[in-house]
C-alpha cells in the first residue's frame, strides 16, 4: 500500500499537446506546496534521456517517484501521454495500491488541434507532423472506464477548476513553507 487515506493521486493522460503539462502546472499553482508533479516527459526525456518503448526504465522510475511522493505525504499529479499499452499495468497497480483518493482524467484533443497547439511548443523543431501523427492515439483509455474524458472545448481554467473540485484539492490546505 502507498500513501495515506488523505493523499490524492491525479492521473492526467492524453496525446501530445493536449494540455496535460499546462493543467498540471495550473493545479500546482492553485494548490501550492505539498503537491508533487510527476511528469513523464521530465523523467523519460530529461532524467533518463530514453525513447518511449515497451518495458522502458522510465516506467519503473515514474512509479517509484509517484509512490515515494505519496508515502512522504504529498498529493501527486502524474501527467504524460502514458500510452495504455505500455503504462497501463503500472498505472493500474499504482491506483490499486494507493490508500487515498485517486482520480483519472484523459484530455481528448482531436489531431488538427494537436497540430495547432504543437506549433506553440518549444519542441516544434524537434518533432515533426509525421511523428505526431504516428504517436497520436484517439481515446487511448485505460481499461475499466476509470478516466473522465475532458474535451478540447474545456478551457485551461475550467479544466483546472474541475479537477481541483472533483479531487477535493480545492478544499485542502497547502503545506506550510
What is this structure's SSE topology?
Elements: E1 8-14, H1 20-31, E2 35-39, H2 40-47, H3 57-71, E3 75-80, H4 84-97, E4 101-108, H5 111-118, H6 129-135, E5 147-151, H7 156-167
Parallel strand pairs: 1-3, 1-4, 2-3, 4-5
Helix pairs in contact: 1-7, 3-4
Percent strand equals 15-25%
Helix content: 40-55%
- Give the class from helix and strand content and strand pairing: alpha/beta
* CATH homology-level superfamily: P-loop containing nucleotide triphosphate hydrolases
Average the pLDDT over all residues and give the rounded result.
Answer: 92
Q: Please write the CATH class name.
A: Alpha Beta
Please name the CATH architecture: 3-Layer(aba) Sandwich
In short:
With 177 residues, this protein is α/β, with parallel strands linked by helices. Helix content is 43%, strand content 18%. The longest helix is centred in the middle third of the chain and has 15 residues, at 57-71.
Q: Any overview of this molecule?
A:
This protein has 177 residues and is of the alpha/beta class. The protein has a single domain (8-171), classed as P-loop containing nucleotide triphosphate hydrolases (Rossmann fold). It has 7 helices and 5 strands; from the N terminus they run βαβααβαβααβα. It has helices at residues 20-31, 40-47, 57-71, 84-97, 111-118, 129-135, 156-167; strands spanning 8-14, 35-39, 75-80, 101-108, 147-151. It has a 5-stranded parallel β-sheet with strand order 2-3-1-4-5, with helices on both faces. The longest helix has 15 residues, at 57-71. The two termini are 28 Å apart. The mean pLDDT is 92.
